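Hallway conversation turned thread

IA: we were arguing at lunch whether anyone had actually written out AlpA family phage regulatory protein end to end. Turns out nobody had. So, for the record, here is the sequence (58 residues) and right after it the structure tokens. Reply here if something looks off.
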Amino acid sequence: MRILSKRQLKELVLYSPQHIARLEKAGKFPKRIQLGSNRVGWLESEVHEWLQKKLAAR
């Protein structure tokens, strides 16, 4: 299991942090994991699954 940082997520998904937050709030993107008071991350497997669904839907 690997957890992606904000920087790694942005490189993989190419969305702004604000857009990612909007998608999360709407339930259209994997939820972040609170790792500390000022640190969040995303499960790499969930992000890859989300990307695969996007590719399949095109």
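OS: looked through it. The longest strand covers residues 39-43.
IA: good, adding that to the notes. The chain has a mean pLDDT of 96.
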